[in-house]
Write a structure and sequence with these properties.
188 residues, mainly alpha, Recoverin, domain 1, 2 domains, two-stranded antiparallel ribbon, 4 strands, 4% strand
Length: 188
């Protein structure tokens, strides 16, 4: 909460983003003692997508850093469960074996097909990854381990405690096998 408050203080125009000038001013106001070159380098580090502005998520991610070992392990446990063919990537066939999209509200209403829903699921993971510089061409309809971990790194940054993150992953991916029937959105 303290980090969020500092970010809002630095966001002079209130648009939810920090541009270079706001960032420079914040580094000065918070007495970071950085040279002009160091401020520029820090700004580039925080601006993960290269947009010229820092979002709160980028800011938080840069401060928190990558997933710790506990969180990475639980993420990979979920990935391994999803990777039914053990090919190292998740594609629509892997997802189809885990989720029955027939119960999704849009499928039931006839708005979308089961495959469209499953592809949207895959695209959720790809969208963030491909928005980062150097990954723009990575959209291929499958999720590799790097994309999976990148997605969960972003989820992780807003969860303070490891035990809560583990609980969230366990419940989301049924890692404890408590749900016996497969359906979209939970147990039937």
């Amino acid at each position: 909460m303290g980090i969020a408050k500092k970010f809002k203080i630095a966001d002079d125009n209130g648009n939810g983003l920090l541009d270079m000038e706001e960032f420079k001013k914040a580094m000065h106001d918070f007495r970071m003692g950085l040279s002009a070159g160091q401020v520029t380098a820090a700004f580039k580090m925080f601006d993960r997508d290269g947009s010229g502005e820092i979002t709160y998520d980028e800011f938080l991610r840069s401060i928190r850093g990558p997933l710790n070992k506990v969180r990475e392990d639980i993420c990979m446990k979920a990935f391994d469960i999803m990777d039914k063919d053990h090919g190292g990537t998740l594609d629509i066939n892997d997802i189809r074996q885990v989720y029955n999209a027939k119960q999704h509200p849009d499928v039931k209403a006839g708005k979308k097909t089961e495959d469209e829903i499953l592809m949207e699921f895959l695209e959720t993971f790809e969208a963030h990854f491909t928005s980062m510089p150097g990954n723009e061409d990575a959209r291929d309809g499958s999720i590799d381990k790097k994309e999976w971990l990148e997605y969960y790194s972003n989820v992780s940054m807003s969860i303070d405690r490891d035990d809560y993150f583990i609980l969230m992953m366990t419940n989301a991916w049924n890692l404890d096998n408590k749900v016996s029937k497969k359906a979209w959105g939970g147990e039937v």
